[in-house]
Design brief:
GO terms for molecular function: hydrolase activity, hydrolyzing O-glycosyl compounds. It comes from Neoarthrinium moseri. Belongs to the glycosyl hydrolase 2 family. It is a single chain. The strands form eight sheets. An eight-stranded parallel beta sheet has the order 26-25-24-23-22-31-28-27. The chain has a six-stranded antiparallel beta sheet with strand order 3-2-4-9-6-7, with no helix packed on it. Strands 1-12-5-8 form a four-stranded antiparallel beta sheet, with no helix packed on it. β6 and β7 form a beta hairpin. It contains nine helices and 31 strands. The structure holds 2-acetamido-2-deoxy-beta-D-glucopyranose (9 copies). One 2-acetamido-2-deoxy-beta-D-glucopyranose binds next to loops. One 2-acetamido-2-deoxy-beta-D-glucopyranose (NAG) binds next to loops.
Length: 627
């Protein structure tokens, strides 16, 4: 119950008094909206580095708007005026604020340190899974940290700022300059002026905030890559205020609990060892192994999957290979937007629901489109067996706006972070640098995707790079990636304006196609006037679900023919769900209607895999059609 109801007061009479949290009515809700409550995202948020001593700091925080110059001094003696739910986007109904265009904000909460954490010598680390766009962290009025970039995990060693036996004040100053003239930052599809394929933006603490106790010598990071040959390449980062240990001890544990390998190595440097005949990870059988890592009194749990990503010719065609084999890769363009939470899925259950729908239709891959998700999303893909093509969130999409040198350098810095923070998830097999020319410098002597492709390979030699998904391909990266609506043009001897011809020396994929739409009744639409007026910009509108499924069948069969006749190795259907003014999802934006005829789609998708398998086996006469 909200405070004004308890007090019997009208909200207006409360004036600047704090309002108790209440979910606001978003332009469209989901079945999860009103189940979120005030204890959102309670799950342990960091599956690759798990520790038992932690405390979630999600829940109801205080918030108020701020001005540009306020970030130097937190409003310590002030109770901020409004409740806000963390994690959430300020613009979302779930935030309880649902306010647009807020460039500067204060977020605050009090917290106490669990009593047993202060009994042993150690450190207390504050973790922010993602804050959009800049966050300055104050603990008890003193600045303890800063982060730039809306998609990344960051940590603050809070120990020296804390009172371990009293109340601590945590303030976060957020600066989110979305669409500010002259600003060009990694932003994906966020905008303050939504229209067609660009959507409502996200500001603030949109992923889990939490703290943990660690010993004075502690494991602060882990990188793992495990191949089909059983080789495990690892780096374990250790931070210490009490001298560095000589070694860390690693054990790999099978699903039935057996230790299948143990290894000791020095911290803060790469090492490797071999697990004999591991059961491999694949989309069909996504076997994972737990890993325990110990040093001194610290012990954490992680996991990996044994699989090798490579490319090579199979019967004369350049293919992406998982564990040395080619299977056709098929999935959706997955934007990760929610009508109630925008960038923040209402819950883990909701987030995983989308993935299970895709897997249930027979898909084995998805393209995470110019957004980065909470770590538990990647964990879910690892568990479910869904290969991931991970895009870098793009800079401004407008063709007239290109980054200056400083903006380009910041984009490149954040591209490194994308790879470093995500390169241990087995499901990710491809990094995308640019989408459809957005933010891609085209006439500065060199093409930046050349250097960025090399950089991706340097940071992560175990995956493929798609330098340009759609439009301006200059020959870099592992893919020749076409975008075309509604029909695919995948590894085919025909292409259209604004796409590049197929390059037989690289892997042919259809980075986007489909996009066929079907309007629905108003209760399933994003109830914003402009969005409804723009529904007619959907690439194609089919009058009813019969027409939609007829068209989908034609397009999937056309794609199958491109697998049979030409060099097509994978394709991405636009898209998982409707978003705002787009009605071309497999699911509506509220996830309440599934448009595909499931039996038909499963058969059409299976036919893609079967056709590719026949090509592998050289069973198809049509191969001679390839030059
Ligand atoms: C907050 O209040 C305390 C005690 O009243 C005072 O000493 C301090 O200067 C105030 N801080 C600010 C930032 O106003
Ligand atoms: C809290 O801890 C500090 C030292 O960290 C100590 O000086 C102070 O007396 C303690 N206060 C209480 C109420 O225990
Ligand atoms: C938000 O900002 C955009 C762009 O400046 C403007 O078009 C829009 O009307 C603003 N919306 C609100 C609610 O202030
Ligand atoms: C491990 O590192 C070696 C040497 O750099 C490399 O050849 C191998 O591909 C790597 N394996 C994995 C699974 O990353
Ligand atoms: C190690 O911890 C110290 C504070 O204890 C911090 O300043 C430093 O950034 C940390 N280093 C790493 C690599 O995390
Ligand atoms: C592996 O780790 C997960 C998550 O920490 C745990 O739930 C599971 O029981 C572990 N499995 C084995 C075999 O240890
Ligand atoms: C353009 O190229 C020049 C020299 O190659 C470089 O100094 C400059 O920073 C580049 N500009 C941008 C926006 O990247
Ligand atoms: C879609 O349906 C909504 C009502 O559900 C209607 O207002 C809108 O005009 C329709 N748009 C198109 C392009 O059919
Ligand atoms: C879409 O509908 C709007 C009015 O709702 C109209 O102004 C516009 O021309 C239509 N666009 C297309 C592509 O049909």
């Amino acid at each position: 119950m909200r405070l004004n109801t308890v007090l019997g007061l009208m909200p207006a009479l409360l004036g600047a008094q704090s309002l108790a949290y209440e979910v606001q009515t978003p332009p469209l809700d989901t079945d999860w909206t009103y189940k979120v409550g005030t204890n959102p995202w309670p799950e342990y948020p960091r599956p690759l580095l798990q520790r038992p001593t932690w405390q979630n700091l999600n829940g109801v925080w205080k918030w108020r708007a701020a001005g540009a110059g306020e970030g130097a001094m937190p409003p310590l003696n002030e109770t901020l005026t409004q409740d806000v739910l963390v994690p959430s986007c300020l613009e979302s109904g779930l935030s309880g604020v649902q306010l647009l265009n807020q460039t500067y904000s204060w977020f605050a909460r009090d917290f106490t340190v669990p009593p047993d954490w202060s009994k042993q010598d150690g450190r207390i680390i504050l973790n922010f899974e993602a804050v959009d766009y800049e966050a300055t962290i104050f603990i008890n009025g003193r600045q303890a940290g800063f982060n730039r970039g809306g998609y990344w995990h960051f940590s603050v060693d809070a120990t020296d700022y804390l009172s371990v036996n009293g109340t601590n004040k945590l303030h976060v100053f957020v600066y989110d300059p979305t669409d500010t003239p002259g600003v060009n930052i990694p932003i994906g599809k966020q905008t303050r002026t939504p229209s067609h394929i660009f959507y409502r933006s996200c500001t603030g603490l949109w992923q889990t905030v939490w703290m943990e106790w660690v010993p004075s010598t502690y494991i602060s990071g882990v990188e793992i890559a495990a191949g089909m040959d059983g080789q495990v390449n690892m780096t374990v980062s250790v931070n210490s205020s009490a001298g560095y240990p000589e070694s860390v001890s690693v054990s790999v544990i099978s699903a039935d609990g057996d230790v299948v390998a143990s290894h000791d190595a020095p911290p803060n440097a790469p090492f490797d060892f071999v697990v004999d005949s591991p059961e491999l990870w694949s989309p069909e059988k996504p076997t994972l192994y737990n890993i325990t890592i110990k040093t001194g009194s610290d012990e954490v749990t992680s996991y990996t999957g044994f699989r090798t990503v490579s490319r090579g010719k199979v019967n004369g065609i350049e293919r992406p290979l998982i564990n040395g084999e080619f299977s056709f890769h098929f999935g959706t363009l997955d934007q990760g937007f929610w009508p109630d939470g925008l960038y923040t899925p209402p819950s883990v259950e909701a987030m995983v629901y989308d993935l299970k729908v895709l897997k249930g239709l027979g898909m084995n891959m998805l393209r995470k489109h110019i957004k980065v998700e909470p770590a538990l999303f990647y964990r879910a893909c690892d568990e479910l067996g869904l290969l991931l093509i991970q895009d870098m969130p793009s800079l401004q999409a407008s063709g007239n706006v290109k980054p200056n040198a400083a903006q380009q350098a910041e984009f490149e810095r954040q591209f490194d972070i994308l790879i470093n923070q995500h390169k241990s998830y087995p499901s990710i097999y491809t990094w995308v640098v640019y989408n459809e020319g957005w933010g891609q410098l085209l006439n500065n002597g060199t093409y930046p995707e050349e250097g960025l492709t090399a950089r991706a390979r340097e940071l992560d030699p175990t995956r493929l790079v798609d330098a340009t998904s759609g439009w301006f391909d200059h020959g870099y990266g592992d893919y020749s990636d076409n975008h075309h609506y509604a029909n695919p043009q995948c590894g085919s001897p025909f292409y259209s304006i604004q796409s590049s011809p197929w390059d037989p020396s690289r892997i042919a994929i259809q980075g986007e196609f489909g996009g066929i739409g079907h309007n629905v009744s108003i209760e399933h639409l994003w109830k914003v006037e402009q969005a409804i007026l723009e529904l007619n910009q959907t690439y194609e509108l089919d009058a009813d679900l019969d027409a939609y499924n007829y068209r989908a069948h034609r397009l999937l069969d056309e794609l199958r023919e491109q697998v049979e006749f030409y060099a097509c190795s994978g394709a991405i259907w636009t898209q998982t769900t409707d978003v705002e003014g787009e009605v071309n999802g497999l699911l509506t934006y509220d996830r309440r209607i599934l448009r595909p005829n499931e039996d038909q789609w499963k058969a059409d998708i299976q036919a893609l895999y079967d056709t590719a398998q026949s090509r592998n086996e050289g069973n198809m006469v049509v191969q001679k059609m390839l030059r």
